[in-house]
Amino acid sequence: MLDNSRSTNWPRRNWPFGDDLKAHAGQPLKIIVSHRPSWLVNVALRNPKFALHQLARRYGVQYVIAGHLHQMLHLALDGVTYVSMPSSGGHLRLSGAYEDGWFFGYAMVVVHGNSVDFRIQELGSPHGEGRTTKLTDWGMAGLVKSDRPKSTPAK
Question: Which residue, 152, 23, 25, is CA-closest to 96?
Fold first, then answer.
């Protein structure tokens, strides 16, 4: 876990997980968790030439997970999955609509050997409708598929 809550910059000299990744290079599953998704612009623009992504690729990191935005987003670049988690209590921004990734919730993560299953859970009433989705149901702009009409923004 890297605390980058005070800055979006990740100077290489302050990467405490670099040595960890080296020491655990043989482990089949690696996840980097941080506060801010400082990777978001690079991944959205499909730019693989940023230091964190290069480190993740070098050591076989499968997932890079962050919070801070309070918006559920799911992106991938060169075999690395990037996840911005929904709000766990902080305010919702922009549209405030569930389909746009703005909701109060959490993830249940189950590891099966080398694979990981994410279940994204929206809180129930009064803060949401208790909907459950898979990570793959989400994309760069929110919910990728939905059988329901657009919801009313959360308050």
Answer: 152
